[in-house]
Amino acid sequence: xxxxxxxxxxxxxxxxxxxxxxxxxxxxxxxxxxxxxxxxxxxxxxxxxxxxxxxxxxxxxxxxxxxxxxxxxxxxxxxxxxxxxxxxxxxxxxxxxxxxxxxxxxxxxxxxxxxxxxxxxxxxxxxxxxxxxxxxxxxxxxxxxxxxxxxxxxxxxxxxxxxxxxxxxxxxxxxxxxxxxxxxxxxxxxxxxxxxxxxxxxxxxxxxxxxxxxxxxxxxxxxxxxxxxxxxxxxxxxxxxxxxxxxxxxxxxxxxxxxxxxxxxxxxxxxxxxxxxxxxxxxxxxxxxxxxx
Length: 293
Description:
The protein has about 290 residues and is α/β, with parallel strands linked by helices. The protein contains eleven helices and ten strands. The chain has helices at about 5-10, 60-65, 65-80, 95-100, 125-135, 150-155, 155-170, 180-185, 220-235, 250-265, 280-290; strands spanning about 35-40, 45-50, 50-55, 85, 110-115, 140-145, 175-180, 195-200, 235-240, 270-275. The strands form two sheets. Strands 3-4-5-6-7-8-9-10 form an eight-stranded parallel β-barrel, surrounded by five helices. A two-stranded antiparallel ribbon has the order 1-2.
């Protein structure tokens, strides 16, 4: 049993925090922008409102750029104020590529999130390997990746304990889960272990959560939004993905509307987008700025 288990975490109140009433959610301060730093719920971790994702089509889009092209894109985003970068153990090659791209930048100047696959090796061994791949001493956020079905909170207890032990060792600063499908999402507001939830979000329900988590079946937008609001009310941070439907939104008006919907209607705190060129970074910053305005 890890020295700092999920049971101890819940018992000692580390997981507790002041509840935030839905009516008191302030989505944006005046003149808010994509590159503002925001605190994710009770986690005390600050991230920029817009993140740089590395998992488009499981990272294929970013890998296709090659290391030099990818590094230039990461540095462009960094220089333009995006200081939150996310990857995953399952994105083949991307943790290593991101580690190289960020090498030499002050570690305290950006936030880094990764997602661990909840099978196989010992959790602590897996996270240590992820740190080695990413050339980082710590992750600001570590998520349980692709949690599905209604029993994921109990199925993943060993991994929750492992992440908490790594947090005790200061190799992880905060933790949460990336959930897929309504049966999994319905467990989120009630799971007190979570600091952060990663939830799919767009106004059309493209590649969003449905009852069977079928990829090409439209998601239940209204229910997803309700769970986001409940999650925020419970004091947790919410990061959203699939803002451009994993590339399905070819019309810029849809991409703009998706950003506005995520922040204004759903109340997410941060969004992550995968990019393949600097024009997409510029547009994403503008779209979030418009949503903030």
